[in-house]
Specification:
Elements (H helix, E strand, L loop, with lengths): L3 H26 L1 E3 L8 E3 L3 H26 L20 H20 L2 H7 L3 H11 L7 H24 L9 H26 L6 H23 L3 E4 L7 H10 L1 H27 L2 H21 L7 H17 L4 H7 L19
Antiparallel strand pairs: 1-2
Length: about 350
């Protein structure tokens, strides 16, 4: 029986998850003169690394929230279960944070080139790479329905890619959707690698989810800040001829309330999205979280068409359908359990369980 708290968590996850992608795209679409007297002139807020920094600040807020919760609620100490240790060095989250920084920055560069809905849909390709890595690196057995889910996701990706091809590159909100989509898919390889690394570490230690997210945010902030300072000296195509012009980013941020709101929206939404996503899984089920995440993609898609970011593409509809079906089949949610209840499939095998595909 679902309680009002359950509906609150579901709504919070849906709203904050949608806001996260929308505010990021809004920030990139905003423009403001960098500063009076500067030669850069008015230009778009093209600073994906600074926006990645905002995301990691949001993740770090989860660590602060966890310690506040412990100080107030004083929960029982964690217990070592299944041979896992409750004592660990936070440095274990440095390598996953490196992967997260690489993947997030690449995805945000891709988002500057393509549509917000394509960005959200193509993130589903992580299932394919996670499945392959769990098979060939961790030596996990992939059951037939896992392969089926990966094939369905692949079909969906092809359809979404065709939608980008037919859309051309004339839209102001998506100057090069094909290249943007390629970058987003490439980033999912790094995301899959991050999941495999986290799986290996977390199989040894008992770590509260919010604390794990928070530590990755902490290391991610340090890495991205360092990269921004390095990229200041690297020639590129952004303002001032830099690969990343952090000075220009903060000047634009100080001169535009729209950009300020977008960055604040990214920080707050990613923090609450992580909290609500973990809570939905714990309080309800992974199935509920998967359904809400699918609705989030649909919400972003509808919003993008409503504000004129993109036009309706029937290939996107087909691709979205296959991506969702593939995700459900791979994660053994809804469809296969129903077939088992009806006696049309054998009971679910217990061994060889692959990595769970999470979204952050």
């Amino acid at each position: 029986m679902h309680t009002p708290y359950h509906f609150f968590l579901a709504g919070l996850m849906l709203v904050t998850g949608s806001i996260n992608t929308i505010t990021t795209k809004c920030g990139e679409s905003a423009s403001k003169n960098a500063c009076a007297g500067r030669t850069n002139g008015e230009h778009l807020f093209d600073h994906p690394f600074v926006q990645a920094l905002a995301m990691f600040i949001g993740e770090f807020c989860c660590l602060i929230a966890y310690h506040i919760y412990v100080a107030i609620a004083r929960p029982a100490p964690l217990k070592a279960e299944n041979g896992k240790s409750t004592t660990y060095n936070p440095i274990i989250f440095l390598l996953p944070a490196l992967c997260d920084c690489t993947a997030t920055s690449t995805m945000y560069v891709g988002l500057t080139l393509t549509y917000a809905s394509q960005f959200q849909m193509l993130r589903g390709s992580v299932i394919i790479f996670t499945g392959l890595l769990s098979k060939f690196w961790l030596g996990r057995k992939l059951e037939g329905f896992r392969w089926m889910g990966m094939v369905l996701v692949l079909i969906g990706l092809l359809c979404v890619g065709l939608a980008a091809f037919f859309s051309g590159s004339s839209g102001a909100s998506a100057p090069n959707p094909i290249l943007g989509d390629i970058l987003i898919i490439a980033a999912q390889v790094i995301v899959a690698l991050q999941m495999v690394i986290e799986e290996k570490f977390l199989s040894k230690y008992t770590v509260p989810p919010l604390m794990a997210v928070g530590w990755e945010g902490f290391f991610g902030m340090g890495i991205i800040t360092t990269l921004c300072l390095i990229f200041w000296e690297v020639p590129g195509t952004r303002a001032g001829g830099k690969f990343e012009n952090i000075n220009d980013a903060f000047l634009q941020l100080g001169n535009s309330h729209a950009i300020q709101l977008a960055i604040a929206g990214t920080i707050v939404s990613i923090a609450f999205f992580n909290f609500s996503g973990i809570s939905v899984t714990q309080e309800m089920s992974a199935t509920t979280r998967m359904v809400l995440d699918s609705v989030r993609t649909l919400t972003i898609w509808v919003y993008g068409m409503a504000v004129g970011w993109e036009d309706f593409q029937y290939m996107q509809v087909i691709g979205f359908f296959f991506l969702i079906m593939g995700t459900f089949v791979y994660n053994d949610l809804l469809i296969l359990p129903a077939l088992r209840r009806w006696g049309l499939l054998k009971p679910k095998p217990e061994e060889g369980k692959p990595l769970l595909v999470n979204d952050s």
